């Protein structure tokens, strides 16, 4: 599994090409702020540019 570095989201790619992108601000119920929005956009751009990414699961950590 490959992990990518972001501050407000988690992004990891499994060996079979599934990329999991998760909002990682559970203390604020994953409320959106500028940093989070920018990192989500960057993670999707990175996934789009990566030929190993075959599918994306978009989720959040914690209750929300």
Give a brief outline of the structure.
It is built from one helix and four strands; from the N terminus they run βββαβ. The protein is α+β, with helices and mostly antiparallel strands.
Give structural attributes.
31% strand, globular
Unreliable stretches covering 5 or more consecutive residues:
none
How can the largest sheet be summarized? 4 strands, mixed
Number of DSSP strand runs: 4
Would you tell me which CATH topology applies? GMP Synthetase, Chain A, domain 3
Helicity, as a percent range:
25-40%
Number of helices: 1
The CATH class name reads Alpha Beta
The CATH architecture designation is: 2-Layer Sandwich
Order of helices and strands: EEEHE
Mass-distribution shape: globular
- Output the radius of gyration: 11 Å
Strand order of the largest sheet: 1-2-3-4
The overall pLDDT average reads 96
- Helix/strand class: alpha+beta
Polypeptide structure, described:
There is one protein chain. Helices cover about 25% and strands about 30% of the residues. With about 60 residues, it is an alpha+beta fold. The chain has a single domain (about 1-60), classed as 2-Layer Sandwich (GMP Synthetase, Chain A, domain 3), CATH 3.30.300. It has a four-stranded mixed β-sheet with strand order 1-2-3-4, with helices on one face. The radius of gyration is 11 Å and the shape is globular. The model has no long low-confidence stretch (mean pLDDT about 95).
Secondary-structure topology with pairs:
Elements: E1 2-4, E2 9-13, E3 18-23, H1 34-49, E4 55-60
Parallel strand pairs: 3-4
Antiparallel strand pairs: 1-2, 2-3
